[in-house]
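Bug report (template v2)

What were you trying to do?
Predict the complex of my protein with coproporphyrinogen III.

What happened?
Run completed; filing so the output is reviewed.

Input:
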Amino acid sequence: MKTLFTQTLAKEKTGVPPIWMMRQAGRYLPEYRLLRKKSPNFLSFCLTPSLTVEAALQPMRRFFFDAAIVFSDILLVPYAMGLSVVFDEKQGPLLSPVDKKFCFPKEEDVLEKLQVVAESVSLLREKMNEESFSESALIGFCGAPWTLAAYMVEGKGSRDFFLLRRLALQEKSFFQDLIAYLTSLLSKFLGLQVRAGADMVQIFDTWAGLADSEQFHEWIVAPTKTMVDALQETFVMGFARQAGNKLFAYAHETGLDGVSLDSGCDLLLANEILPRDLVLQGNLDPVRLLVGGEGMRNEARKICEQCQHRPFIFNLGHGILKETPPEHVEQLVKVVREFR
Ligand code: CP3
């Protein structure tokens, strides 16, 4: 069965693009906020496949997106590596920070703990088939080595990740080991998700914009290429947020099948300069979705128009904001589906 999504994965252009949204499951949905109460904390929620599957299906039932994304978090990996990871309501994620004395755990042990994500993937595929979403794609994901290192070194979210950037320069040999370790681990982690039923995987490099151009090549392009090579036939999408003009290297030198673009990226220019068979994904500003109205609709149509002659997946430039009215999501899906 050919669907918009599988056609796009095969690098065909489709006219009307398939659509899903980063953070399509989560707190903007009242049913998610209710479900979330069934677990004492966010981490235990992510570690319970019956709950993660329900969370991933909620936006599918409302909006019939072309793809579901497994419900999990990029910080499950540092947790499985033995770090303490707490999601604080106000401060966001808090981790026990690593330094050059960090002892890397055995890869098999970490992957064993991450097996629960593969369980979520296979249970989600099963339930999608039961609930008439058998033609929708299933997306697996992980954080990129650089972005995971950012949280692991800093111990929390930050605007400039100063501790990360200082350590990357001052303790280069340790940083090299950390990135190499994560690169190998994450390749295998994505492999687990693919074997469990993921049709596509996305590598989230949320903090790619913090790397200078030398670091971008060393800690972002090279590790991404290693991961793509390890995943062979799998369809891999990368999201190097705020990479700016370094996106050119990211698209050309990693072997990625597609790149997800943030809202700051000029889509018309990206369409012109990036390889014709590279799938582009993006890039409506989540704040435009939150505000809604004719402004949102016009911008969405413009995005569809700018990419109608290449393989393209409609998405946001970053995750849905929790204050977003669900009706706006419904309106956006309608506009995109009616595009021609
Ligand atoms: O539909 C989906 O996409 C849900 C699955 C998902 C989550 N996180 C659930 C989540 C995905 C794909 C992520 C990725 C993620 N997590 C990224 C990369 C993408 C991006 O947004 O840049 C990053 C950097 C994280 C780390 C993270 N997790 C932060 C910084 C926070 C706190 C800030 C916030 O938005 O609350 C989280 C928590 C988190 N991850 C929540 C959800 C639904 C909210 C916690 C809750 O529901 O209690």
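What did the reviewer find?
The radius of gyration is 19 Å. The beta strands are 67-69, 85-88, 92-95, 137-143, 200-205, 235-240, 258-260, 279-284, 312-316.
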